Amino acid sequence: MKSITLTSLLALFLLAFVVPQSSTAQTAGQSASGTYQFSFEDGYTKYVEFNAQTPTNGGTTGQEFFSDEVKVSYQDVDGTGDPVFKETYAGYYIKADFDGLTVNKNQAVMSGTVRDSSIRSLIGQRVLLTVEDNGDNTRVPDKMTWGIYNPVRRDWTPSDAERKVDDGVGMRWVATDAERKDDVGVVYPRDETISNKSFPVSSYDFAEVNAGAGDVVVVP
Predict the structure, then answer these.
(1) Taking CA 151 as the corner, what is the angle to CA 79 and CA 84, rounded to the nearest 5 degrees?
(2) Cβ distance 91 to 69 under 8 Å?
(3) How far is CA 43 from the centre of its chain?
């Protein structure tokens, strides 16, 4: 098993728990775009350029380019006794195609798949980019955070081992709050694909940059 180790923060600033996604709907005409160059205390320059939109025919289109000068190392950390494997890159880039967009007021979450990267093993992984548009307010700059995730692959189906035929296999159900008529409910089993709907917008913790310049525009 390969694990990625960064010499500075990779900004996986999500809460450690998963809570049901808010009911914010994806609406035609919503969009998010921008360019941003920034660094943390380590001084390594990071750059992101992105655009995502929901056309009138549905779905989400858009792309992201992200580059980082930080040193990246991969090594075997699963304790299987395999020979130690370590690979180091002096910076990297990714290009991703977006397939999901959620807009909540001045914030937006975009999800997609890495289509090209200077680190070949990142191709095919999922990305999340979350931004906050604070307009021309110089006191409160625009914000963002991001993450790169391995796709979830389930090659087994849970069932009751004490029953030869488990009638519940493959069934789906919706859990709701019986005391609330406006509760849209949560569908189970849940879709484990990392997407713009995996986490509520409010659960993202934005990166605290040391220096940054650029502009983020969110259209609700």
Answers:
(1) 25
(2) yes
(3) 24
Residue 197 one-letter amino acid: K
What b/e sequence results for 138-166 when a residue is b if at least 16 CB atoms lie within 10 Å of its CB, and e otherwise? eeebbbbbbbbeeeeeeeeeeeeeeeeee
Cα torsion angle, 52, 200, 193, 90, sign: positive
pLDDT at 14: 37
The tens digit of pLDDT for each residue in 142-192 reads 999 999 998 876 666 666 677 777 666 666 667 788 888 777 676 655 666
- Which are the contacts of 158, defined by CB distance < 8 A and separation ≥ 6? 169
pLDDT (tens digit per residue) in 16-67: 333 334 334 457 789 999 999 999 998 999 999 999 999 888 889 999 999 9
* The one-letter amino acid at 15: L
Among left, alpha and beta (phi > 0; psi -120 to 50; other), residue 73 is beta
Helix (H) or strand (E) holding 98: strand 86-104
**77 conformational bin, left if phi > 0, alpha if psi -120 to 50, beta if neither:** alpha
CA torsion sign for 17, 22, 25, 31 is negative
Contact 62, 51 (CB under 8 A): yes
What's the start-to-end Cα distance of the chain, in Å?
Answer: 41
**Calpha distance 169→153 (Å, rounded):** 18
